[in-house]
Specification:
two-stranded parallel sheet, 10 strands, 269 residues, alpha/beta, 6-stranded mixed sheet
Length: 269
Amino acid sequence: MCTGAIPAPPADMKQTIDITWTEMSGGFMGLQGARGSSRRIQTYKSWALDHVMWSQGNMNFCVRWDSNVTVTATMRDQVQVTLQRGIDAWFSALSGYDCFPYSKVNVKVTGWAVRNRATLDWTDDTLVPIYVNMLEEGAPTCPADCSRFRHQDKNYAFAQCPGGPQNRFDQFVWLDMDYDAPNGWDMGAHVNQMGFTNTIAGTGLYHIWLHEFGHSIGFPDYYDWSTWAPGVAAPRCVMNAGAATTVTDWDKWMLKRTWSELLRMNRWP
């Protein structure tokens, strides 16, 4: 285990990283927009780093296809590749850094949830688990028995997950045809389907999903920054809505700080 001082970020980032860590730790509790004690990153243990460490360098996703747009086999594969690119954009920051044990976090889609099987334009149901008309919050979802969020006990074996533990998922990506109010939590992100799929054929990334995934790491929004840190300019980062359209060096250093802090708390013995 790494010990000693946490590696320092560039000097021009230190103040805003320190302020953000204070918010993540519950230090602004009671101020507008700041988290309460139940979501302090030190005590709530189902953030993305917990998923990665529990899954030994992997991250599994359920695709909640809340759309009537047909999914071709090519699109199915492109969604997984796009999720991998997004995870790489974030977690490449930790490769070789401060005892992080994985050179790459590997992404796998372990379920597609749809309203109608005919929406999926492939016939081999053995390629990936498919869940039809299984609804939660009025939208297709994968089984609760396969959900990491629903089973945060590290000893839970997912024995009731259809197909066994290999089909469990750490997070979902909820792709909603008619959604324009994106959200992200530790259990996954809810974003516009067209916005996301418009990026999958190339090498780009849907910046809104990148932002919402950042919430699963434990990062805040910055709408109330002037209340938390009056007189200090908010950082240029993808987590500061409108300030960046990709994961920036600041975002990566914030992830490094988060890893280093939690590692030194013996979070993952």
